[in-house]
Design a protein that fits this description.
Elements: E1 5-10, E2 16-27, E3 32-42, E4 48-58, E5 61-66, H1 70-85
Antiparallel strand pairs: 1-2, 2-3, 3-4, 4-5
Length: 87
């Protein structure tokens, strides 16, 4: 069984949280990095909620940012669809 990878994130309000890292990737054409992670929460249908964030690096500090651009979202969704087909 594959060991779960966890990362610790610090929110803007200073709250620290450990989450399970599912996937990290980078789009080469725009050089943007992303992470997909979960807090292992379930929605009303029993599905695990996942989160997607863009990573900004300044020195050795990483900041997670919301993905707000529709074109970025479309690319991320396409990538996730392709990955789910391969499972």
């Amino acid at each position: 069984m594959e060991e779960k990878k966890t990362v610790t994130i610090t929110h803007e309000n200073g709250e620290v949280e450990t989450v399970e890292l599912l996937l990290s990737f980078k789009f080469k054409d725009n050089n943007k990095e992303y992470v997909i992670y979960t807090k292992n929460e379930k929605d009303e249908n029993g599905n695990v909620t996942i989160y997607v964030s863009n990573i900004t690096r300044v020195g050795d500090k990483m900041t997670l940012n919301a993905v707000s651009d529709e074109m970025e979202w479309a690319r991320i969704k396409d990538l996730l669809r392709e990955l789910s087909k391969n499972e």
